[in-house]
Amino acid sequence: MSKSNTKTALPWWVELLFVQIGLPDSLLRSFLINKKKTRNFYSSNRRPISIIFIASLILVYIQPLVKQASIHNQCINDSKSIVEDIYDKNNMLTQKEIRAVATNFCNGGGL
Fold first, then answer.
1. What is the predicted pLDDT for the residue at 81?
2. pTM of structure
3. 83 closest CA partner among 62, 59, 105, 68
C-alpha cells in the first residue's frame, strides 16, 4: 500500500477555504498554529475559564432583573410626590399608605 492511499481526507472547512476558494497556505498555517495554542491554553486553564464562563452567564441572567427593579423603584419614588400632592393635603395618609398607593400606581393601577 502506498502513502498516497493512506492519506486522510481534508476537513470540509480546509477543502472549502483553501482548495476551492484558494486562500493562501500561510493563512492555513497560522490558523493551525493558533488552534493548537488555543487548545493547549484551554486544557491547562479549564477550571478558571469555566468559572469565568459561569459567572458571565449569571451576570447576563441577573442584569435585566436588576435593571427592571431599579426602574420600578425609580417609578415609586417619582410617583410618591404625585400621591403626596393629590392625597396628602390634609395629612390623610401615612407614609406607608403613600408608598402603597405609589406602588399600585406603578403596577398599573390608578390614583
1. 85
2. 0.55
3. 105
